[in-house]
Amino acid sequence: YSSDTVGKKLNKAMNYFYNNKLNDAEKAFGEIIALEPDFVEAWNKRATVRYLQGNFFGSLLDIHQVLERQSRHFGALSGSGLIYLKLERPKRALESYVSVSQIDPWNEESKKLILKLKELIYGVKL
Questions:
Q1: Residue 107 gets which letter from DSSP?
Q2: How far is CA 29 from CA 24, 32, 109, in A?
Q3: Closest by Cα among 90, 85, 45, 40 to 65
């Protein structure tokens, strides 16, 4: 394979994604990952696709792969927080958003979520 092959597959995968053909997009990003397993954004996009499909555990598995390769990946950390919120795992969501705030201390959204999650978990108004 060549980077040209990956580039063509990426264009196809993104086209599927933007046209809401999520099953096709998931498969196409999977093909890219098979060719280039260290291509972080292919893992991240497939995580997004899986999230949109309601496959939260599959999405978390892909996010884990992103973070293995790039531990400070803002989008993956934010995405994991969102998934943990949906799965009603507030402590794990809090961990994700604390990591986001360590990367981007000016991120107002993560600051708000951290406060809300601490109130929920610890039952204390902060």
A1: -
A2: 9, 5, 29
A3: 40
- For every residue of 11-37, DSSP letters joined together read HHHHHHHHTT-HHHHHHHHHHHHHH-T
125's tokens: 């108004």
Place of tokens 């990952």: 33
* Nearest to 71, CA basis, from 45, 100, 30, 108: 100
Q: Which two tokens stand for residue 116?
A: 């809300």
Residue with tokens 């799965």: 87
Q: What is the pLDDT of residues 90-126, one digit of tens each?
A: 999 999 999 999 999 999 999 999 999 999 999 977 6
Residues whose CB is less than 8 angstroms from the CB of residue 47 and which lie 6 or more positions away in sequence, other chains included: 59, 60, 62, 63, 66, 76, 79
Q: Which two tokens stand for residue 86?
A: 């949906």
The pTM is what? 0.91
